[in-house]
Protein 1
Amino acid sequence: MSRAALHTVLFFFLAPGTMGFVVPWVITGWDRPEGELGALELLGAGLVACGLVAVIACFVRFVREGSGTPAPVEPTESLVVGGLYRYVRNPMYLAVASMIGGQALIFHSNGVLVWLALFMLSVWSFVRAYEEPTLAQQFGESYARYRDAVPGWWPRLTPYQG
């Protein structure tokens, strides 16, 4: 396993693992109301599953396409614009948000909904204040073209061909 792959696995458990699973567990204890699973719980499970698959796909893409990690302390050598990044600039954050929102539905938790709002505010602020300026400095015109063509938070319908 390459150094980037190993560090990516570690970062997976540290960042999305903590934000998407540990914090909701602390809030809910993963204790859901008694009774059968209804439509909301099944929708929540689907959101968690889709979010988890998307996060894993993004992490793999960072190692394979970017030759680096998603961790800010060990960034990629190449701008990652393939996979889910062809549709939206921040699929990893949206995927973690999907996992958090899904758990809010599964556990009927207003506390997890509040966490979702705090998470989104935090990542939006981080992206605007640190990530976008850093990528612009690191990748220059290629990032500017990508940023102009691909929305940050609402996926485009057709893939970016940059």
Note: The chain has a mean pLDDT of 94.
Protein 2
Amino acid sequence: MVIKVLTQDKQQILTEYIQNLTTSSVGYDFRGKYIDGVYRFLESAEEVSRRGWKRWKKAHAEELIYMPWIQDAVCNMLASRGIGFRPQKEMASKRRYIDKLEKRDVRQTETINNFLLWLNNEKEYSPNTLRIYSFSVRDFFSYFDEFNQDNARRYIATLEEKGNNPKTIRLRITSIERLGEYLKKPVKLKRPKIQKTLSVENVPTENEYNKILDYCDKNAPKWAYIIRLLGTTGCRVSELIQFTYEHIQAGTCDLKGKGSKYRRFFFTKQMQEGAKGKSGYVCTNRYGLQISKEGVRNVLQTIGEKCGVAKEKMHPHAFRHFFAKMYLKKTKDVVALSEILGHGSVDITRIYLQKSYDEQKKEIDRVVNW
């Protein structure tokens, strides 16, 4: 690996930025990442400016997918120098990142970078979705140099022969078809069928839900409110962290969620009452910043340990399932629930009609008396 030495001017910029970090609100755990991100930018950037950053970002689009703190760090550095970028949301919780990409053919690297940039601009996909697309097209190019229908089919056939999960293969197919759309070489691939299932075993029961709330009401009132928000809206964690007290006070709001689709949320009178006199994000970390999805999961796991509810049931999506089960128990209206949850098909929502092992056993004991 060739290590580039920074010019004297860039060394000075890096030194000044490190000094600036000591008085910033960036957490200690992330200062090292920020310094690393700025160094990566400085060692190959043509100039330290808005234009230089835009050029660097285009040339390193794939790298940014796997190391998103670089964008936060560089924007933070440029803002500290008065160049015009506002600092990005400062990261205050730990994240997991995939190792740095291995070197590949320059032409393929440019294709992948430009493809990801196109996806980001045209489709507005989430960082997690972009990572899936990035891995998929890199994996394709590890088998074939040329993109066409025949190679795409052979690639999927190879995955099937290796015994890849049908769900994984469907993700790879979607990624390859999007690449064909970008390259103006459309391909159409047959998707393996997946039986739609839901593990209803790992959904809190009504008694467990009340047990969790009783514990939180006494020990963590803020999280009692957040868990009620999960349990009464059926929101995803990505939607939960977008809620503000102003949204709840209004009684309803529209937010962009999974698949860049807008979804309407309704808040009960109890939730509205609890939001009175408050403002800003509902879910914040100890620094007062918008909490991450991982942060929400970690807190729920801790609450589960303390109140004696299995950790398998203490994750944000479990409360979305809980909402669905309770709504169907009260209304029996699958169509209305499908709309509330933002499902693309009622068939997906019908999964919530399944009964857990314990529910099935009780039903058998009650019905089978002959």
Note: The longest strand covers residues 252-256.
